[in-house]
Amino acid sequence: MDEIFPRLTAADLRARIAADRTGEETREYGDHLLNPDFVQLMERREARAAAVLVPVVDRAEGASVILTTRSSGLRKHSGQIAFPGGSIDPEDASPEAAALREAEEEIALDPAHVEPIGRLPRYMTGTGFRITPVVAVVRPGFELAPNPAEVEDVFEVPLGFLMREENHRRESREWQGALRHYYVMPFGERFIWGVTAGIIRTLYERFYA
Fold it and tell me: What is the distance between the alpha carbons of residues 189 and 112, in angstroms, rounded to a whole number?
């Protein structure tokens, strides 16, 4: 990448989260902020609870965020860039437990290397999911092995790139007969968009704006 962006550290993110006194439930984030007609989904009783891990790797050259490319064989959202995560199962003790379990299942990220440090506000999706993003610091030295049934690729993006507003772009397209708006964050040949970009935007607005 030729683009210049700030070098951000995991220690700085940890300090920002520790200093936050607003509480995780002060504002609902989600697709409805750019698409007000989605707001009714927040009241859907059948909406499913989910959790994703926002894994921030504590690298000396600057923190980076682990992202995945979903397998092209998946029925939904195939080929899209995502955080490790999924539905919260009844046996999961917390959103943190669910996010860690999913990350281990999807990319073999050893929980021993992962320290959850906070939650972002729940993110409401246009498909009716209530997602709890769990922010975690990941200690280097881990080895990843993508589960081919779920993940096609795993990679890292500098936190400094993701937390620079100039790299957040709004786009729109027609979906189910209506115009839908969303964020995109192109990174080289990678195209981060949709819910993943929305959660990254939430992290930016909460701690870096």
Answer: 31
